[in-house]
């Protein structure tokens, strides 16, 4: 057992002082006390917060972030961005995926994310590499120290009704039998802080008859495995779903699938009241990625109404335009303020601190979506923690939960000094022990890919 001491921090809904955590060798918190002075010479950290789960990541897109902001004559929207992304995906080998994911996960850790849901659809870039592509992601998680919920993606069609895939989608495609076989082969590789789940890319990419076999396969392996899906991200998708099934996407999902607490509906941007109420009633998590949703022009999810109805949410960095939980939460709140011309929109009904409320709720919702025992500092939870630099200018004058408000809403510099995952300090004094080597490999690999694409005129 190890004891860790903190000057102050967010424990549940309370701001406590002189905190002592006892952590077992498996990284789980076994005892929590406050008002405890550390023995002489013992390091005292603080303030301490629960680390944030990143519930939605496409790791390979990190190397593409910022490279699709040039507009040709004509339309520029999600669908034109997708075409450019397909060109980039063709160059992803298992080695490149491992290098890019390793660097990304270090960036996430330094930003206060301790766990990631890797929405992994890059299976077959050059040949049948499904297993080695997933193993590349797992190696990156091990190298960086982040906790991984690996979410292999079933992707079979280009549009509703099982339309054949486009040529650019070839790296993503699986038959149902091959996909369920991949899940079975992968399962023994996941233990400890890593989890295996299941993802349907979207309703347009997975025919209706493929849902049940995939869910049966993952339930045979793990009845509590998380299930994720992109849904209702764009109005074009909603309209196409109406043409196909005479139902909206979330409406169709709620009517045909056993959506429950295991499910994470990513984006769900364009929903009507019956849909967001249905999601809240089922207890699923909505995965919100405000920086990516803003970058792609998706729209704004009705978070105020959903949360007021008891809905659960978490945040993800998705395409990694930003790797900063603070910015995701800030933009989430600001979008609601702009839409309503009001302030502190997403604060709880009982009032309180907006930043602190957002951090707590996103941490708990993200933990649920990833099936990870994290999201709060409590006995029985894993010791995934972040420590803030109390001397940072953004915290001047802040006290108690104002510290979390300032973290979310004040300043751009990163005040996170230390990050613990499963009881181990992965980031100390703002640095990962292998970051120089990891970032060096990343720069070389992405530079090489960029040169290849330039030669191709992509």
TrEMBL record:
Q: What is its EC number?
A: 3.5.3.13
Major enzyme class:
hydrolase
Secreted as UniProt keyword: no
Q: Any idea where the Amidohydrolase-related domain is?
A: 48-425
Q: Name one Pfam family in it.
A: Amidohydro_1
Gene3D superfamilies per record = Metal-dependent hydrolases (3.20.20.140), Urease, subunit C, domain 1 (2.30.40.10)
| SUPFAM superfamilies reported in the protein's UniProt record | Composite domain of metallo-dependent hydrolases, Metallo-dependent hydrolases
Which co-factor is required?
A: Zn(2+)
- Protein name as it appears in the record: Formimidoylglutamate deiminase
Origin: domain of life: Bacteria
Keywords (alphabetical) are: Hydrolase, Metal-binding, Zinc
Q: What is a GO molecular function of this protein?
A: formimidoylglutamate deiminase activity
